[in-house]
Each structure stands twice: as structure tokens, then as C-alpha cells.
Amino acid sequence: MTTEEEYRDDGDERDVSTDDERDDGDALLKGKNLYDVLGLRQEDAPSEKDVKKAYHRMAMKLHPDKNPGDEGAKEKFQTLQRVYAILGDAKKREVYDKTGRIDDAEFGGEEFQNLYEYYRSAYKEVTTEDIQCFERDYRGGAEEKKDLLMYYERYRGDMTRVFAWMMCSEEADDSHRFADALDAAIESKDVESYDVYVEWAKEIRKRPAPKDPLGSRKTKKSGKAIKGSDADTDLFALIRKKNSMRAEQAEGMFAALEAKYAPKKKTKSK
After folding, report:
1. How many CA atoms does the CB half-sphere of 203 hold within 13 Å?
2. What gap in Å lies between CA 204 and CA 163, rounded to an integer?
3. Disulfide engineering: 105 pairs with which of 7, 96, 116, 262, CB 3.0-4.6 Å?
4. 3-class state of residue 256 by DSSP
5. How does pLDDT run across 124-170, given as a tens digit for each residue?
6. Does the structural domain 6-103 have CATH classification 1.10.287.110?
């Protein structure tokens, strides 16, 4: 195995390729950042001109025509072009400098902006009112019951975990009605009875049931119903509270909102 050779064109550039790295083009990136591939030092904050100059030097050295006996020359040259596509673009280079990730950098810049603009034009912005409307339709509906029975069975009656995954649920508001629905499902043998649930339900029955469990959510301090834009703080605090354990359900919720509010695609008749 040979050691790393010095590229002496101007006396300050390094050739980062070795004999062990001649199998494929991405071998140029093994254990190195993109600046290393060009023989530059990231901490020196090379200018755009420096990057371009270093690329041209490496391109001349790695071009397949200059390396007729190297079967991996083509792949190496393609990798070099990929490196320059990032470091030679100011926005992509900025992303790479911040994240150190090649995939993030390649997705930065104009491509990301175009995709973002397309998404914003295709879908209506989801507002607080949209979320509240979804919550009103979901709570007490068939979809909520389906989810309740699914998570009840999945977690074998552990209602702490069930509440963690149920969308738009709060134990103080929903425990009694969830217990009613589960008791009915157990009686009709739609689901199995679990001891942990039976003990939970016993404790719940000792507490007074909410007078209007499906009514408007109440704020913790004032007891007033949440309305319009005044709901932002309380509503999003609730979402953040359970966000880490509701990734799948959050996706389903916003997918349902997008399906409802996104413009319908028109199909051409044959």
C-alpha cells in the first residue's frame, strides 16, 4: 500500500487518492470531508476562486483520458464533479458547512426552494381553525373509536400508552367516555379484557365524569372555551406535549387535513 502522495503543481495542494481507493469513485470521500477531496482545508475558509482553482487541478489529474489504465477513473471523476457541485455553489456549501452532510447539501439551494414553492402552491396552509375543525370531527367519531380499540389491543389495556398515542385526547376530558366505549367493546367481545385496564377503569369511575366531554376545550387558568386565534398558545402547547409519541398519528392528522383542504386534481376525460 502506498502512502498519500503530494500534488506539487503549486506546492500547496494534496492528492487525496490512494492505491486502496481506486476501486470506485466514492472512495475519494472515505474518511474525508469535501474540502479534503480538493486538497483544501475547511478551516481556511477558501474563497470561491480557490475552490474553482483546486477543482480544475484535480479534474486534470483525475480525468479518465489522463488515466487510461485506471478502471475506476470515471467514477472518481464523477465524484469530483459531485464535490464541486456542492462547494462551488454558495448556498449548498453553506448547508454543508453547517451540517457536514452531503445529502443535506445536495438538497439545498434552488432545488429545495423550487420544491418548497411547489408544495406551498399545491396545498392550502393549515390554520388553527382547520385543526380545531378536525378535532371536532374526530373526537367522538367512528375514526376515533377505531383508533381507540386498535391502541387498546396493541398495548394490552395500558391506558397510559393508549392516551399517549390517541390524537386530540386528554385524560381529564376523555377517560370516562373511553372507558364507556371500551366496556361496551369488551361486553360485545370485540376486544379482550385486560387486568390493567379493569384496574384503571375502576379508578376512573371513582371520579366525577365531565359534564360535556365533547365540548370546547377549556384553558387551564380561566376555564373559558378556546376560540379562534386565542387558542394558539394552548392548542400548540398541547400538540408539543405529546408530539414525540405521536409521530405516526400526527402524519395521519395532517394527511387528513391536506386531503380535505388541498385542491382536487382534475382528470382529463378520454
Report:
1. 9
2. 14
3. 96
4. helix
5. 667 888 888 889 899 999 999 999 999 999 999 999 999 999 999 99
6. yes
